[in-house]
Amino acid sequence: MSKIFRLHKDNISHMEENSYSSEDKIQKLISEYPSLLAGDQMGGTDGKCWLLITREYNIPDKRESGGSWSIDHLFLDSEGIPTFVEVKRGEDPRVRRKVIGQMLDYVSHAVAHESGHNLRRHFEDQYGRKNAVKRVAEFIGGNDDDRDLTQEFWDGVDTNLRAGRVRMLFVADKMPPELRSVIEFLNEQMGSVEVLGVEIKRYSGENDDILVPSLVGNTTKSKEGSTSRSNPTTTLLELIESDEVRLSEGDELHMTYDNEEFTSTICQDGSVKFRGEKRSLSNASNKATELAGETNDKTRTNGWRRWKTVNGKKLDDIRSEMD
Known about the structure:
The structure is a single chain. By secondary structure, the protein is of the alpha+beta class. The protein has eleven helices and twelve strands. It has helices at 23-32, 98-113, 116-127, 129-140, 147-162, 177-189, 220-224, 236-241, 281-291, 303-306, 315-322, and strands at 4-8, 11-18, 51-59, 69-76, 82-87, 167-172, 194-204, 209-216, 252-257, 260-266, 272-274, 277-279. Strands 1, 2, 3, 4, 5, 6, 7 and 8 form an eight-stranded mixed β-sheet that branches. It has a four-stranded antiparallel β-sheet with strand order 9-10-11-12, covered by helices on one side. Helix 3 packs across helix 4, helix 3 crosses helix 5 (147-162) and helix 4 packs across helix 5. The longest helix has 16 residues, at 98-113. It is elongated, with a radius of gyration of 22 Å.
């Protein structure tokens, strides 16, 4: 095992590897410092950044239920991919087998019964709607009050959940070889689901600690299969400009809500014109439901799933085919 030394001014000291006092200690550190989840080691130009939805997130066992299980953390990355995090200390015997079945149980029910709207509602309840919009906008690099951009982000979260495009992240201070092998196997075989581990070692000195996160499971074979996990982030503008898709400026889109028919028109800049105003797809669909007399906020859903071409094909299906 490599030794860790700390150099301070002209003094060098040896840091001893130590375990954490409790799982709760690791969980609190992850909540306060999400970069410990080794997002910088997960590929891409800048790696992964994390938006914490909450600790101890309740997983529903059916739609509209209050939740039967609790996952340690639920994060979203900048592509809106839900990331489920379960923490165990290496000395916990459950880290080897039980945690795998536990995580599969949690995530399978989340994919079946959870929605982007519910995650958004939970996030807004926790931070307040205005502050939640600001947090998401800053996270994805938009303006503080860009509600259309944040709506598109949550739409992407919903699309990812429906497609089973999620990430399982097992965290421990010491990753047992048996768990490493299972993580690598699952990550190579599970297609749209990414399965990774993060080992966060703790080294202690006289007055401070050094934490060293390292990624587990990102094998060569799993990297080759990562294209099946791509996120449908194609915009309407990209659909218009693509040679593969026959959508053009001026094309009409249609949606039906509560037996009322609504029409919008594709604009050159990738927005749609609805009732004389340029809007995003989701903003236009939400406005249509308001015009139909619906005031319940639960009706706010993904505009990609509501608007159809003149041939009756949902834009979400067209985007999925392209991605």
